[in-house]
Amino acid sequence: MKWEELHVGVQILIAFVLSTIVLWLAHIALLNQPNGRGFLYGVFWAVPLTVIIVGATRSERAKRLRAEGRDPST
Predict the structure, then answer these.
(1) Fewest C-beta atoms under 10 Å: which of 33, 36, 44, 64?
(2) 3-class secondary-structure state, position 34
(3) Each residue of 14-47: pLDDT tens digit?
(4) pTM of the entire structure?
């Protein structure tokens, strides 16, 4: 199933979980943060990253559907 076709709630969940894990590992490995603090920073920065990912996905899908002459609200 395509990413764009997933329900927005599923996209948010997937993007948030994956972003949290990646950012947590980055804070531990690259910034030498302790595990707990790295996890909190991962969660903190995963929120805006999730908004950016899902917002960009919805925007690009709507733009593509408009170019195809279809209604983006369906």
Answers:
(1) 36
(2) coil
(3) 999 999 999 999 999 999 999 999 999 999 999 9
(4) 0.85
